[in-house]
Design goal:
Elements: E1 28-30, E2 49-53, E3 56-60, E4 67-70, H1 72-80, E5 87-91, H2 107-112, E6 115-117, H3 123-128, E7 133-138, E8 141-142, H4 150-155, E9 159-162, H5 180-194, H6 198-217, E10 227-231, E11 239-241, H7 246-253, E12 257-258, E13 267-269, H8 272-278, E14 282-287, H9 293-302, H10 310-313, E15 317-321, H11 322-325, H12 331-346
Parallel strand pairs: 4-5, 4-7, 5-6, 7-8, 7-9, 10-12, 10-14, 14-15
Antiparallel strand pairs: 1-3, 2-3, 11-13
Length: 348
């Protein structure tokens, strides 16, 4: 569940630095200079396996058995990898999973895995679930403010895996260490190693890369890319996507010019004057929360400072769901959907 950087989310919705798991939990340890080794479970011939997550190396002697995930995108990464039987449950607000319907490939995951809470993930929930690994992210469940951090979980004998989109990058509280879709592919491949499903992970990544490439192939090579602004929420100051949020790659790979691409973070606050100055030709609305897409659009269309903005004047608003825009296996489909819309915009 992702929280915005400068204001609380409308519900405890969102958004890792350490990835350390004790032997008593799920058979992993942080690699250290001493080279001390744990006794490995070699029954599959796969373990021990060492991975790197947000700059931290961890060695797994066996696969975690009771994973708790926070947020829908993170949960669907596990579902896409077919790891439902390794999950103790997931945390997500009611509205955040409003579309695990027939057109969602991971519907069965929601049916098989227990939803532990529609509120904020916390230490007590993790312990009650007897979790051996928590898969969350900074501002997607992990946070210094709420006391749930990988280091705190390590002290409790529980491991952590951090969503790569949310990795801190060493510049204060900023997040993002690689392009957003590469973050998705990295997590799929890394989790594939942890859970010994590397073939499935590789197949998913190959399929997603192809879907994105196919969408890009439909983008006209001549002409200027439409300017696109992502509106997450906010009245006084809008919350939008920076260069490291999933929305950036979705917009750019769909053939758009992301007007906030210079912001080196994931989800950030900006001023309306910046939006007006950059004059987006299309606004993509993030549909989530108590304030739905229709209400957000009504606000944008009636907000006087935006009256002269091209997207508002021409009623060019495109809606994507929250789970399409945060790191998730729905990102490639979102690229294709937006590419189709922008192709129509280019024709005008």
């Amino acid at each position: 569940m992702r929280t915005s950087p400068a204001r609380p989310s409308p519900a405890p919705l969102f958004l890792a630095l350490l990835c350390a798991i004790t032997l008593t939990s799920c058979g992993a340890k942080v690699s250290d200079a001493s080279g001390d080794k744990q006794v490995a479970d070699r029954s599959s011939g796969h373990y021990p396996v060492t991975i790197e997550n947000c700059g931290v190396k961890t060695t797994y002697d066996k696969a975690p058995q009771r994973v708790v995930t926070n947020d829908v995108g993170i949960s669907e990464i596990m579902f896409a990898l077919g790891l439902e039987d390794r999950m103790a449950g997931y945390v997500a607000p009611a509205y955040a999973t409003s579309r695990p319907d027939a057109d969602v490939p991971w519907k069965d995951g929601y049916a098989k895995v227990k939803r532990l809470s529609t509120k904020e993930i916390n230490k007590e929930l993790v312990l009650d679930a007897r979790a051996d690994l928590v898969f969350a992210g900074w501002n997607y469940g992990f946070g210094e403010g709420n006391g749930l951090t990988p280091e705190r979980l390590k002290q409790l004998g529980v491991g952590s895996y951090v969503l790569t989109e949310s990795c801190h990058n060493g510049t204060g509280g900023s997040r993002g260490v690689m392009p957003p879709l590469e973050a998705l592919y990295t997590d799929l491949e890394t989790l594939g190693k942890i859970f010994d499903v590397e073939d499935r992970a590789r197949a998913l990544v190959a399929g997603f890369r192809k879907r994105v490439a196919d969408a890009q192939a439909q983008v006209p090579k001549d002409g200027r890319a439409p300017r696109v602004f992502l509106y997450d929420d906010g009245r006084d100051k809008p919350v939008t996507a920076g260069a490291y949020a999933g929305a950036h790659d979705i917009i750019t790979k769909a053939g758009g010019d992301h007007v906030m691409k210079d912001l080196k973070d994931t989800w950030v606050n900006v001023g309306w004057e910046t939006v007006v100055e950059r004059d987006p030709e299309v606004i993509v609305i993030n549909n989530y929360g108590d304030v739905g897409a229709e209400q957000k659009k009504k606000f944008l269309m009636s907000y006087p400072p935006l009256a002269g903005v091209s997207a508002v004047r021409n009623d060019r608003v495109f809606v994507l769901d929250y789970v399409d825009l945060v790191e998730s296996p729905r990102n490639p489909a979102a690229v294709a959907a937006l590419a189709g819309y922008l192709k129509g915009v280019r024709g005008h």
